[in-house]
Design a protein that fits this description.
Layout lengths: L1 H14 L1 E7 L16 E6 L2 E6 L5 E7 L2 E8 L3 E3 L2 E5 L5 E5 L12 E2 L3 E3 L1 E4 L11 H5 L2 H26 L1 H14 L9 H6 L20
Parallel strand pairs: 1-10
Antiparallel strand pairs: 1-4, 2-3, 2-5, 5-7, 6-11, 7-8, 8-9
Keywords: Membrane, Signal, Transmembrane, Transmembrane helix
Protein name: ER membrane protein complex subunit 7 beta-sandwich domain-containing protein
GO cellular component, one term: EMC complex
Length: 217
């Protein structure tokens, strides 16, 4: 039994390969040498994980990779990379396919060339650009709209009252009566609902009181 285990271990070592690749230039990354030195790659399968770092010449290598199917991921602070499927077979071949997370493992994507060429999908932005002053957004604020409406009412309401007093003599007489009473501002006592309805409220007339003499029994 020990001999069989030793033979299987030696055969696994003999069939192990080095998986190699490089970071190729692209429009999103014209010079891969600008990637941070902390950029790393992981080659994972069930119960096994290998990790390596990017070299100065933008290449990488996983040593002694046994036969099996692996997922290749790139961890980088500045760019995002798509995962790749790497299959190492017993004939000493390395086959690479495009894949994505959530995809069923038996569904293989587009076949890629070997040695592996990795290009970024998009840069990673950690900072949000602060928006400048936008007058349209300022006018859309509810508080600003309320203030503008109040200003328009303060300016236009006296003009509307003067215009109606010229047309409606009864309304004009009511305003003059209110001014004679105590010099109060007619705008403060103005009934907006009656004005919009086209009616005017007349001042209430004072009542009369009568007194009588009582008789004593």
């Amino acid at each position: 039994m020990k001999l069989l285990a030793l033979l299987s271990f030696l055969s696994a070592i003999a069939s192990a390969l080095d998986v190699q690749g490089t970071f190729a230039p692209s429009p999103l990354l014209p010079n891969p040498s600008t990637l941070p030195p902390s950029t790393s790659l992981t080659l994972t399968t069930t119960g096994t994980a290998k990790r390596t770092l990017i070299r100065r010449d933008n290449t990488f290598s996983f040593h002694d990779v046994p036969e099996g199917s692996y997922l290749l991921d790139v961890q980088c602070q500045t760019h995002q990379f798509a995962p790749l499927r790497v299959d190492v077979n017993g004939q000493g071949e390395v086959v690479v396919h495009q894949t994505f997370r959530g995809n069923e493992w038996r569904n293989k994507g587009e076949k890629k060339s070997y040695p592996i060429e990795i290009q970024p999908v998009r840069p990673i932005d950690y900072y949000i650009v602060r928006e400048g002053f936008n007058p349209t957004k300022l006018l859309g604020s509810p508080m600003v709209l309320i203030a503008l409406f109040s200003l328009v009412m303060i300016v236009m309401l006296p003009k509307l009252m003067d215009q109606r007093s010229q047309v409606d003599p009864e309304f004009k007489a009511e305003l003059e009566a209110q001014q004679r009473k105590g010099g109060a501002n007619p705008v403060a006592n103005f009934d907006v609902a009656s004005f919009l309805a086209g009616t005017s409220s007349s001042p209430s007339a004072g009542g009369t009181s009568s007194g009588g003499k009582g008789k004593k029994n």
